[in-house]
């Protein structure tokens, strides 16, 4: 009986393997657009930076016949690798395709690591040990957990478990609370992943201040999902292009989504006016903050220049070889003029 059992178990195992291989072949044929065999890049050396690079990456599930709006728009994406940032900070309009991009990248990584073809012209990957995704809004009523608590609990798990070889996808973290608290949490979490964990990741957000704070950080690349903006009657008309482009998007165009949802024109016009009012207030506040920072920078510069004058004064009293005294004196005069 035991021998018969093992024979049947072996038969079932081989049948399952064959089923998987056939399924992968069917899936590869199902892709709309190019498909490729992924290139797996080892990162055994500590000096090698894990990479993820795709050219014309499509979606393994979404096709024109399922979308009903034309073919799925592929995108090029690079995360990590030599000389490239490991994290992407993604902005863009509501309904612009940010969440879809995060999902398709994660799905492509799974396909690549199980040995399947990937819907792309080319796909290069350093293997990941785990994929962490924080996406969507949900609560746990039976556990007494709100949407925001659920979001932070899942984020806490990611923070404690992710390694430098993990892939992280965070979609609009912090939206379940006030703007100030949400932005502060989002920025702190992003900073931890970028500078401490140093893993590959994607972070989509509507907190545009994050893009300002990270625009000079070499470890973060700013990208946005592009769109075309036209002038409607009182409300901006947005056409989604679903193209991943470098740089940050200045607005989220939420009022446009409200128009697509069918809100009455009177509410849309009022919302658009309120939006412009809020943007003007934020712009004035931002200029004031930048002015304060500029004053602080000038104060610090003044302290440094005074120290330079003192140092060069003591230096000019020496007849050391190789020191051009006239140049030192000229430098002192220019520094004193700057302080006036």
TrEMBL record:
Which SMART domains does UniProt cross-reference here?
Answer: MUTSac (SM00534)
Ranges of residues in domain DNA mismatch repair proteins mutS family: 85-276
List the GO biological process terms.
mismatch repair
Specify the domain of life of the species encoding this protein.
Eukaryota
Quick check: keyword Nucleotide-binding in the entry?
Answer: yes
Q: Pfam families recorded for this chain?
A: MutS_V (PF00488)
Instruction: Please give the PANTHER family that the UniProt record associates with this protein.
Output: DNA MISMATCH REPAIR PROTEIN MSH6, DNA MISMATCH REPAIR PROTEIN MUTS FAMILY MEMBER
Name this polypeptide is given: DNA mismatch repair proteins mutS family domain-containing protein
The record, for InterPro entries, names:
DNA_mismatch_repair_MutS_C (IPR000432), MutS (IPR045076), P-loop_NTPase (IPR027417)
Transmembrane stretches in the record are none
Offer an example of a GO molecular function term for this protein: mismatched DNA binding
Keyword terms of this UniProt record: ATP-binding, DNA-binding, Nucleotide-binding
């Amino acid at each position: 009986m035991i021998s018969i059992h093992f024979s049947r178990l072996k038969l079932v195992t081989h049948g399952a393997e064959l089923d998987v291989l056939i399924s992968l072949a069917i899936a590869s044929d199902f892709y709309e657009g190019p498909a490729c065999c992924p290139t797996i890049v080892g990162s055994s050396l500590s000096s090698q930076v894990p990479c993820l690079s795709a050219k014309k990456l499509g979606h393994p599930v979404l096709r024109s016949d399922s979308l009903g709006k034309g073919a799925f728009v592929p995108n090029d994406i690079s995360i990590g690798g030599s000389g490239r940032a490991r994290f992407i900070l993604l902005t863009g309009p509501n309904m612009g395709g940010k969440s879809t991009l995060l999902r398709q990248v994660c799905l492509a990584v799974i396909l690549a690591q199980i040995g399947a073809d990937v819907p792309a012209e080319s796909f290069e990957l350093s293997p990941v040990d785990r994929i962490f995704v924080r996406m969507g809004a949900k609560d746990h009523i039976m556990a007494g957990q709100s949407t925001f608590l659920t979001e932070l609990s899942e984020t806490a798990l990611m923070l404690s478990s992710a390694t430098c070889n993990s892939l992280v996808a965070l979609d609009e973290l912090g939206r379940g609370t006030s703007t100030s608290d949400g932005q502060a949490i989002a920025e702190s979490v992003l900073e931890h992943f970028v500078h401490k964990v140093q893993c590959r990741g994607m972070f989509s957000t509507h907190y545009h201040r994050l893009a300002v704070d990270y625009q000079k950080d070499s470890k973060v690349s700013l990208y946005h999902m592009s769109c075309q903006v036209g002038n409607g009657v009182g409300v901006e008309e947005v056409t989604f292009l679903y193209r991943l482009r470098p740089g940050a998007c200045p607005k989220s165009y939420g009022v446009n989504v409200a128009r697509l949802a069918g809100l009455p024109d009177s509410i849309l016009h009022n919302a658009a006016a309120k939006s412009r009012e809020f943007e003007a207030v934020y712009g004035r506040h931002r200029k004031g903050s930048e002015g304060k920072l500029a004053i602080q920078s000038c104060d610090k510069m003044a302290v440094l220049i005074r120290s330079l004058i003192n140092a060069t004064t003591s230096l000019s009293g020496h007849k050391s070889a190789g020191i051009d005294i006239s140049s030192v004196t000229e430098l002192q005069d220019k520094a004193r003029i700057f302080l006036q």
